[in-house]
């Protein structure tokens, strides 16, 4: 596989998610960081890009300059990652797709369902790839969970329990801190805070491992801290199209919880449990049997898990390696398109613009439901309703 040129928008110095992308994209040597508009401040962005080894003529002051500069090059970037604040994702992603670039967009993909529908349509018209960074679906043992469900080890899936509950916004005295306040400001974040920020990761995992999509949902939102207009805690019940139900809890006020992401799947033949803070172990209990700990890197896992593992059994792999699996999938799919061959089918499980759209529909549905006393609402995007 020839090395691919990669660019980043956002993810500047001091950003939360930028470093994880750079570690992940660089891990397997598939991508070379060739261009960037890394910061909202052009001078800071250029200076940091050069510090990271980007050539001065590809260290851009803003994304529009980058689009123009890269469009005119023979060695233009093969993939651009959009890691800017949420309200900018739609405009940047659409512009790059329309100009023939593949995009990996941070979540949430857009601010509205309509924008998300438009991105899906733009992807279709462009023939380009648009992935959305539900990076936790890149963990080897999450992929193994999905493989076990798909090959029937659990039988029919009855229930999925999904959580993303942390405690980092629990201090009422700190609620006015500007670094936290914007996250609960509808003008900057849209109609949902915690569900849109974290809940959709948990829901994506539930959909990913069960192989079933959300059909309808009922949501209960609270603002545990009075000064907040948007929710900092939500409980959501979701009915899936294959007949299973998701019980989803997301919170920012769960004091003592750290990242707090996990998923359990209960089927007629057994149950699986996985927690992101211990991602190398998967707990499997067959009905009537004892619990077995499946270790990442063991020789008898699925091809999906094998492909997503790098270091040997007993050595921890963590979040940047999960994101690296999304990048490895994209490298395979982009390279296959360039070489005119069919990609490895195991690389096709990266999250797509359709997943981004489903999330936006779920957010709107949850907001409507929560404001209507938990009434069941259609969770599907308009374009995906039978
Ligand atoms: P952040 O505020 O820490 O960093 C944002 C970066 O983008 C900064 O460097 C800023 O200067 C830059 N920026 C802002 N506007 C820009 C513009 N117009 N052009 C170029 N650069 C610009 O934010 P963050 O926490 O890193 O979040 C960024 C995105 O990543 C958000 O959409 C967030 O939801 C998402 N995120 C995803 C995950 C995940 O697990 N997938 C985790 C954290 C954040």
TrEMBL record:
Residue span(s) of domain Gfo/Idh/MocA-like oxidoreductase N-terminal = 4-134
Q: Which Pfam families match?
A: GFO_IDH_MocA (PF01408), GFO_IDH_MocA_C3 (PF22725)
* InterPro entries given in the database record: Gfo/Idh/MocA-like_OxRdtase_N, Gfo/Idh/MocA_oxidoreduct, GFO_IDH_MocA-like_dom, NAD(P)-bd_dom_sf
Q: Which segments constitute the GFO/IDH/MocA-like oxidoreductase domain?
A: 142-273
Looking at the record's lineage, which domain of life comes first?
A: Bacteria
- GO MF assignments: nucleotide binding
**Listed PANTHER family:** CONSERVED EXPRESSED OXIDOREDUCTASE (EUROFUNG) (PTHR43708), OXIDOREDUCTASE (PTHR43708:SF3)
Task: Please report the name of this protein according to its UniProt entry.
Answer: Gfo/Idh/MocA family oxidoreductase
Q: Which organism is it from?
A: Hoeflea prorocentri
Q: What is the lineage of its organism?
A: Bacteria, Pseudomonadati, Pseudomonadota, Alphaproteobacteria, Hyphomicrobiales
């Amino acid at each position: 596989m020839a090395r691919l040129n990669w660019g980043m928008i956002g993810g500047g110095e001091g950003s939360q998610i930028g470093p994880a992308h750079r570690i992940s994209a660089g891990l397997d040597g598939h991508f070379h960081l060739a261009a960037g508009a890394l910061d909202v401040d052009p001078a800071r962005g250029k200076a940091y890009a050069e510090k990271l080894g980007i050539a001065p003529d590809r260290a851009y002051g803003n994304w529009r300059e980058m689009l123009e500069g890269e469009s005119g090059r023979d060695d233009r970037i093969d993939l651009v990652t959009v890691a800017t604040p949420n309200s900018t994702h739609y405009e940047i992603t659409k512009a790059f797709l329309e100009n023939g670039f593949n995009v990996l967009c941070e979540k949430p993909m857009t601010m509205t369902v309509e924008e998300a529908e438009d991105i899906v349509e733009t992807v279709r018209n462009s023939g380009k790839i648009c992935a959305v960074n539900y990076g936790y679906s890149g963990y080897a043992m999450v992929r193994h969970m999905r493989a076990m469900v798909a090959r029937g080890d659990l039988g029919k899936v009855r229930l999925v329990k999904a959580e993303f509950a942390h405690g980092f916004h629990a201090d009422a005295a700190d609620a006015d801190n500007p670094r936290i306040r914007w996250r609960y400001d509808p003008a900057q974040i849209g109609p949902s805070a915690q569900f849109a920020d974290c809940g959709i990761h948990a829901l994506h995992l539930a959909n990913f491992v069960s192989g079933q999509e959300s059909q309808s949902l009922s949501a209960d939102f609270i603002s545990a801290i009075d000064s907040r207009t948007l929710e900092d805690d939500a409980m959501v019940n979701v009915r899936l199209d294959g007949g299973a139900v998701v019980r989803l809890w997301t919170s920012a006020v769960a004091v003592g919880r750290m990242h707090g992401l996990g998923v359990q799947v209960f089927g007629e033949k057994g149950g699986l449990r996985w927690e992101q803070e211990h991602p190398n172990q998967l707990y499997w209990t067959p009905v009537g049997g004892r619990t077995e700990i499946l270790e990442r890197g063991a020789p008898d896992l699925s091809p999906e898990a094998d492909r997503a593992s790098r270091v040997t059994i007993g050595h921890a792999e963590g979040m940047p390696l999960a994101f690296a699996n999304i990048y490895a999938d994209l490298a395979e799919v982009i390279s296959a398109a360039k070489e005119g061959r069919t990609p490895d089918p195991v690389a096709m499980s990266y999250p797509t613009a359709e997943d981004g759209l489903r999330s936006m529909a779920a957010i709107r549905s949850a907001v409507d439901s929560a404001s209507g006393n938990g009434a069941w609402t259609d969770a599907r995007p308009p374009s995906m309703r039978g």
